[in-house]
């Protein structure tokens, strides 16, 4: 299997642990549910892949390449800052969007897709960053730090 397909497949499994709690918190629909969902998502989105990358089984592609934890943290920060800047720029448009008039189930599906894409893009970016950093040692058996 190619490295990118392997990463996307592993992200599906990680999202089974990342997504249900924030979606459940959001569907409560009280005043603080969105804040609880956002905080729980970000904590899980940071911790679960970071912990997974510490296992020896966290290898991708035919060549069994790894993702460095440091690269993941860097990409997670880049994704968080990018999303924050984007959110601040379109805040008024987003608040007045017809998206909020959609049925709850449709909004939940959009949020689930967005969360999967965000986790996947962060992992793909971390993989590429790791490969650039460890070009000569990224294959199993090479000296590397997790």
From TrEMBL:
Parts of the chain that traverse the membrane: 7-28, 34-55, 67-89, 109-129
Keyword Transmembrane helix: yes
Domain of life: Bacteria
Keywords: Membrane, Transmembrane, Transmembrane helix
The protein's name in its UniProt record: Uncharacterized protein
């Amino acid at each position: 299997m190619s490295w990118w397909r392997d990463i996307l497949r592993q992200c599906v499994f990680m999202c089974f642990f990342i997504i249900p709690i924030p979606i459940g918190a959001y569907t409560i629909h009280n005043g603080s549910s969105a804040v609880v969902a956002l905080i729980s998502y970000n904590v899980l989105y940071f911790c679960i892949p970071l912990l997974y990358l510490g296992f020896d089984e966290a290898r991708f592609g035919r060549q069994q390449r790894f993702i460095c934890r440091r690269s993941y943290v860097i990409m997670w920060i880049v994704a968080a800052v990018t999303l924050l800047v984007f959110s601040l720029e379109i805040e008024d448009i987003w608040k007045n969007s017809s998206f909020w008039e959609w049925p709850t189930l449709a909004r939940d599906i959009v949020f689930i897709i967005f969360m999967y894409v965000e986790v996947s893009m962060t992992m793909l970016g971390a993989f590429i960053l790791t490969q650039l950093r460890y070009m000569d040692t990224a294959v199993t058996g090479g000296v590397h730090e997790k």
